[in-house]
Design brief:
- By secondary structure, the chain is mainly alpha-helical.
- It contains five helices and no strands.
Length: 92
């Protein structure tokens, strides 16, 4: 399962489970929120690591950029499309 799919599945679980949702929201208060978030994902059985989240976002952004106007310099600037971590919380 790809990182994006795992994050979607985890978000879906957290949307249905208020306690789990709160646990994820509390990870944002930690000294290193992304690490705490990934640790929580692994605790749930999903092998999500910091670089997985970052790389998945960058790969998604690059694919989107290539698909617009041939991916050249005229491609529109995309806002926050590469930040799967923030997108996860926006969906909660």
């Amino acid at each position: 399962m790809e990182t994006e799919e795992m994050l979607d599945e985890i978000r879906s679980r957290a949307q249905k489970d208020e306690k789990l949702r709160e646990e994820f929201l509390r990870t944002r208060e930690q000294e290193n929120p992304l690490s705490a978030f990934c640790a929580k994902c692994r605790e749930l059985g999903y092998p999500v690591y910091e670089m997985d989240v970052i790389a998945a976002g960058e790969e998604f952004y690059a694919a989107m950029k290539r698909s617009t106007n041939g991916g050249g310099e005229n491609s529109p600037m995309l806002e926050a499309e590469d930040d799967f971590y923030e997108l996860f919380f926006a969906g909660l």
